[in-house]
Each structure stands twice: as C-alpha cells, then as structure tokens.
Write a structure and sequence with these properties.
The chain is α+β, with helices and mostly antiparallel strands. It folds into two domains: 6-74, Integrase, N-terminal zinc-binding domain (Arc Repressor Mutant, subunit A, Orthogonal Bundle); 80-173, YebC, transcriptional regulation domain (Alpha-Beta Plaits), CATH 3.30.70.980. It has helices at 6-36, 46-57, 62-74, 103-116, 149-164; strands spanning 80-87, 93-100, 120-122, 131-134, 137-140, 168-173. It has a four-stranded antiparallel β-sheet with strand order 3-1-2-6. The protein has a two-stranded antiparallel ribbon with strand order 4-5. Helix 1 runs antiparallel to helix 2 and helix 1 packs parallel to helix 3. The protein is globular and about 45 Å long.
C-alpha cells in the first residue's frame, strides 16, 4: 500500500496550509511595499505602520517585511494601488481594492472574474458614491439585503473568487448577509 503512510497524509495537509499561508503573506507584503513606496520609515508613515502590524499578526517573518520595505524604496516604479467598481448579482455594489505591478493584466483578470460569475464592470465613480471610507475601510452608506437565495449564493461565489485573486487586497459590498 504505497502512499498510505502517516507522513504522506501530513505532507499533503502541510502543502495545502503552506499554499494558503503563502498567498496571505504575498498579499500582506504587497500591501507593505505599496505603503513604503513614499516613506519607508514606519515612524513617519502610519499606513506602513498599520500594514506591518497586520503582517506581524499574520505571522509574516520580520526579514520578509524588511525586504519588502527595502525593495519598495529602491524601486522607482512598481506596485500600483487600484480601486475597481462593479455590480454583482442582484445589483450589489462592489468595490475591489488591489495592488498590482501590471495594471492592464489585473483589470482584464478582474473583468473576466466578474463576467464569469454574473457581475458587471462599472465605470469609475458609479459605485463609489454608495460607500464611505473611514480608517482605511470602506462601508456602505445604504446597506441592503438580497431576498433571493440564488442571487445571494452567486454573490458569495463572486466575492470569494475575487478575494482569492493574488492582486486583490480587500473586497467590499453594500449587501448585508444574515447571520
């Protein structure tokens, strides 16, 4: 019975958890690099300080954080912060914050995800008015509920797919989900 050892089972579980951790780490390090682009000293850059705290809470090693800050301050060009606006199933307003080193690639990938999951790309300013930003977090001015279970499940699938994308940092919607 080859492949049925105790170590084989552990190895596969570890591989899955390592992939998830790696994805989280890369998102957090991109956030740090984008914040460090203007000012690499966290004492003078509150956004960088918050990103470092968030990364430390997630268990990112200190030398990885230092490398991200160094790389960001050395690069003249590089990561760009983007906000995308869209409408999801049931007319849900969606804001997607992302950090990318290739704007055109990220736009096309987000558009493809939206198209495949029942969402629609929105022009700049057509969704953002329905949100307000406080403390770096977007919140809906007019929260709504979806009464249709099919639309709600489509929206959840769309939001999960967007959050799994490597360049996406945060996804916000005006839909309130019942608990």
């Amino acid at each position: 019975m080859s492949g049925h050892s105790h170590w084989a089972g552990i190895k596969h579980k570890k591989e899955i958890t390592d992939q998830k951790r790696g994805k989280i780490f890369s998102k957090l390090l991109a956030l740090i690099a984008a914040a460090a682009k203007d000012e690499p000293n966290p004492d003078f850059n509150p956004r960088l300080r918050a990103a470092i705290t968030k990364a430390k809470d997630a268990g990112v090693p200190a030398d990885n954080i230092a490398r991200a800050i160094t790389r960001a301050s050395e690069q003249a060009e590089g990561l760009e912060e983007l906000i995308f606006e869209a409408y999801g199933p049931g007319g849900a307003a969606i804001l997607v914050e992302s950090i990318s080193n290739n704007r055109n690639r990220t736009i096309q990938e987000i558009k493809t995800i939206l198209r495949d999951r029942g969402g629609k790309w929105a022009e700049t300013g057509s969704v953002q008015w329905a949100f307000e930003k406080a403390g770096g977090i977007w919140s809906a001015k007019f929260p709504q509920e979806l009464s249709d279970d099919a639309e709600r499940s489509k929206l959840v699938s769309l939001l999960e797919t967007l959050e799994e994308h490597g360049d996406v940092q945060e996804v916000f919607t005006n839909i309130v989900f019942p608990e």
